[in-house]
């Protein structure tokens, strides 16, 4: 088995969002920004953004990888650019600060209305039966009951104003 495939997923993670040169079998060379590495096959997904806003994507199969050379650290700007290439149109990005603010406002509203709420990691757990996951819109509610049956009061601020989709940014 080649050394690339013997690496652990955390070792591959250091290549994500960075520019690399990959030497594959038959001495073929590929260069681009690593979008991800498949943890099962060790295949590398390379992205080369084009000037027209599109991207050229190359998948180098893990069994063919002979050597990976790190060329340039991409940083946060490249990470966001790569992520945006694969996001559906209309995705609203929510900053960590906005996310924490929404979570705090929602928790305060629940407590003000005497609804038991606890935090479970990034999510809020309501009455032990409903989870509200980031980015705290009603589309990300999971649990035994619907929000409407659990709570006859008007909806908390911001919970109804839902974009078509949302994602968390850095």
From TrEMBL:
Subcellular location: Cytoplasm; Nucleus, Gem; Nucleus, Nucleoplasm
InterPro entries xref list: AD, Gemin6, Gemin6_C, Gemin6_Sm-like_dom
Quaternary state and interactors: Part of the core SMN complex that contains SMN1, GEMIN2/SIP1, DDX20/GEMIN3, GEMIN4, GEMIN5, GEMIN6, GEMIN7, GEMIN8 and STRAP/UNRIP. Part of the SMN-Sm complex that contains SMN1, GEMIN2/SIP1, DDX20/GEMIN3, GEMIN4, GEMIN5, GEMIN6, GEMIN7, GEMIN8, STRAP/UNRIP and the Sm proteins SNRPB, SNRPD1, SNRPD2, SNRPD3, SNRPE, SNRPF and SNRPG. Interacts with GEMIN7; the interaction is direct. Interacts with GEMIN8; the interaction is direct. Interacts with SNRPB, SNRPD2, SNRPD3 and SNRPE; the interaction is direct.
Domain of life: Eukaryota
Alphabetized CDD domains for the sequence: Gemin6
Name the UniProt record assigns to this protein: Gem-associated protein 6
Main localization (coarse): cytoplasm
PROSITE patterns in the record: AD (PS52001)
Residue span, AD domain: 69-167
GO biological process: spliceosomal complex assembly; spliceosomal snRNP assembly
Function: The SMN complex catalyzes the assembly of small nuclear ribonucleoproteins (snRNPs), the building blocks of the spliceosome, and thereby plays an important role in the splicing of cellular pre-mRNAs. Most spliceosomal snRNPs contain a common set of Sm proteins SNRPB, SNRPD1, SNRPD2, SNRPD3, SNRPE, SNRPF and SNRPG that assemble in a heptameric protein ring on the Sm site of the small nuclear RNA to form the core snRNP (Sm core).
Keywords, ordered alphabetically: Cytoplasm, mRNA processing, mRNA splicing, Nucleus, Phosphoprotein
The organism of origin for this protein: Paramormyrops kingsleyae
GO annotations of cellular component type: Gemini of Cajal bodies; SMN complex
């Amino acid at each position: 088995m080649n050394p690339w495939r013997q690496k652990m997923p955390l070792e591959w993670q250091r290549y994500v969002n960075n520019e690399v040169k990959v030497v594959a079998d038959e001495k073929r060379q590929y260069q681009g920004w690593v979008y991800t590495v498949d943890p099962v096959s060790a295949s590398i997904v390379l992205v080369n953004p084009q000037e027209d806003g599109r991207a050229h994507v190359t998948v180098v199969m893990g069994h063919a990888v002979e050597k990976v050379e790190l060329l340039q650290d991409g940083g946060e700007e490249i990470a966001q650019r790569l992520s945006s290439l694969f996001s559906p149109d209309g995705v609203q990005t929510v900053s960590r600060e906005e996310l924490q603010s929404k979570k705090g406002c929602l928790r305060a509203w629940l407590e003000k209305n005497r609804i038991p709420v606890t935090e479970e990691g990034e999510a809020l757990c309501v009455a032990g039966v409903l989870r509200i996951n980031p980015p705290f819109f009603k589309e990300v509610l999971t649990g035994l009951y619907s929000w409407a049956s659990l709570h006859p009061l008007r909806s908390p601020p911001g919970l109804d104003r839902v974009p078509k989709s949302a994602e968390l940014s850095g």
